[in-house]
Specification:
alpha/beta; Rossmann fold; 3 domains; 37% helix; globular
């Protein structure tokens, strides 16, 4: 026997969780106590949203993350981050200490709201059901072990968040202990070999086949099969932005990142003109609308437990076994393009850009300078901003060296995610964040400092929600006499002063490529957290958007 809090922590620990993120409160204090007793590291974040982003970033690299905050006021602040984890396939366990039986009884009988209650029954459980793969409230100690095991298993199997609510008066209740290892494997449907054979048949009849690699290849650890398939088939391939560096970008056949219909023309030509586009574990968002719409009938989409050939009714099939069969396939009759050397560095990937000599720092100069300072020591954690477009062309060495939020598209994700990434991986996070996103979650620097993560944060300081200005009225960028939208301007923070108040050790403000290069060179030797405020011209657009 063990108390419920200890059992839950033990199951997390057994499955690779070494850190608990969150903000403790009376409803979840027992979880933090159990985590500390078990040897887990507890990270107190600067906000519930920040805690959720941190658990998300950790889960993407470790395969499972955990976060716990106070009921109601904490969890409802957390829900945005959990929704993003749900959309982008990140297995986060949300641990909530809910109202006890007496709390509920008093509220129903006397109308007395318990702490953080909305007055409606089981508000948190209802809210999280829509953004998790499984949500449960445990009412009796006897059901705790099986419910916890099921929730953790679902998170690992589905690669999506789950929600566990335990009444705060039940945390120390004794529950039975299960010693079996959890089995999160996805069982083949029996159709995978047949589907792989059908894929090969389609390839044999195609003239311009291509592959688009998605995030599920990373989430399910299918690297070997995917790389063998690409090598044996000799097909040109790209990745989505969510899957950037899932397969190392020096792998033969790589043509670039297809982040949207604004991707570089050579990438678009391969992917959009393909008459047999095989997508492997892709999560398609709004930036892929035109591709999916126009290629729907020519697309073979395998992922999320389904395989779809064009407009045919999807069939149940697991990506892993399909890839294993594809990796063993014979492609002698399929069209094999001449050996494709993988695209080179940022300059080669951006050769289509017309070079200018602006007087103010531009996005293009910013990313070109960053690219020249990248090495295997860094992992990019990129926020949602205009810079997302050129970031797709950064040449990142290694595997899983790039993290972003390109489908859920929540600004501010990068600061918390870098805390999780920094604790999950030995590489240093290099965060690139727009000033709009930073002003939402910048206080997360405090947790970054306290956790001892040697991250470097680059804030793109242009004084506005630039991506909103672009999406709503792009003509402002071309017309110097036009006023910006009245609701996109930002208060110009003293970012270096703010960072210093959070305990950041190193700060720089730059406004030229030369100054940025010098700061990045110095950053290689920085100890502790560093921040670079990069003053980019407010009217500058990345070339893709111009």
């Amino acid at each position: 026997m063990a108390n419920i809090a200890d059992y839950l922590v033990r199951r997390l620990q057994e499955n690779g969780v070494k850190v608990l993120f969150g903000i403790p409160g009376t409803s979840c204090a027992k979880v933090f106590e159990s985590a500390i007793s078990a040897g887990l590291r507890t990270i107190v974040n600067s906000s519930e949203l920040d805690a959720g982003y941190a658990a998300d970033g950790y889960a993407r690299l470790r395969g499972l993350g955990a976060v716990s905050v106070s009921y109601g006021v904490g969890t409802l602040s957390l829900i945005n981050a959990v929704a993003g984890a749900f959309v982008e396939r990140s297995p986060v366990v949300v641990i909530n200490g809910g109202p006890g039986a007496k709390d509920i009884a008093y509220e129903r009988q006397y109308g007395i709201l318990f702490s953080h209650s909305t007055g409606r029954h089981l508000t948190d459980l209802a809210a999280f059901r829509d953004v998790t793969a499984f949500a449960v409230r445990i009412e009796h100690a006897g059901e705790a072990a099986s419910a916890i095991d099921h929730a953790v298993t679902v998170a690992m199997r589905e690669k999506r968040p789950v929600y566990i609510e335990i009444p705060q008066d039940l945390w120390t209740a004794e529950c039975s202990v299960r010693n079996n290892a959890l089995d999160p494997s996805r069982n083949p449907t029996g159709l995978e070999e047949e589907i792989a054979a059908a894929v090969q048949d389609r390839l044999s009849a195609a003239q311009k086949p291509a592959v688009l690699v998605g995030a599920e290849v990373a989430r399910y650890g299918l690297y070997k099969s995917a790389e063998q398939f690409l090598a044996h088939s000799g097909l040109p391939w790209a990745s989505t932005l969510l899957a950037k560096t899932v397969i190392p970008e020096d792998t033969a056949g790589f043509v670039g990142v297809y982040d949207s219909d604004l991707a570089p023309k050579p990438v678009r030509e391969v992917i959009e003109s393909s008459d047999c586009l095989i997508t492997l574990g892709c999560v398609f968002g709004i930036d892929h609308t035109l591709l999916v719409r126009d290629s729907f009938d020519k697309m073979i989409a395998v992922g999320d437990g389904l395989a779809r050939f064009g407009a045919e009714v999807p069939r149940r099939a697991e990506l892993g076994p399909v890839l294993e069969n594809l990796a063993k396939g014979n492609y002698s009759s399929a069209p094999r393009p001449a050996d494709i050397d993988p695209v080179g560095d940022y300059a080669e990937r951006r050769s289509w850009v017309e070079q200018e000599s602006p007087t103010e720092l531009t996005h293009e100069q910013l990313y070109s300078t960053i690219d020249s300072h990248l090495s295997e020591d860094w992992q990019i954690v990129h926020d949602t901003c205009l810079g997302s477009y050129p970031s797709a062309d950064l040449k990142m060495p290694g595997r899983n060296a790039f993290m972003c939020c390109p489908v859920w598209l929540s600004i501010g994700h990068s600061i918390g995610a870098a805390v999780g990434a920094g604790l999950a991986d030995a590489r240093r996070p290099l965060v690139i964040c727009g000033d709009g996103g930073f002003q939402i979650t910048g206080q997360g620097l405090s947790a970054m400092v306290r956790a001892g993560i040697e991250a470097v944060v680059i804030v793109i300081d242009n004084g506005m929600y630039a991506i909103e200005q672009y999406l709503i009225d792009a003509s402002w960028y071309r017309d110097p006499d036009r006023d910006p939208l009245p609701y996109v301007g930002l208060n110009r923070w003293d970012y270096t002063g703010f960072a210093k108040s959070m305990g950041v050790s190193h700060t720089e403000t730059v406004s030229t490529p030369e100054e940025l290069a010098a700061a990045l060179t110095a950053a290689e030797d920085w100890k502790g957290v560093g921040l670079i405020s990069a003053r980019v011209s407010a009217r500058d657009l990345p070339p893709e958007n111009s």
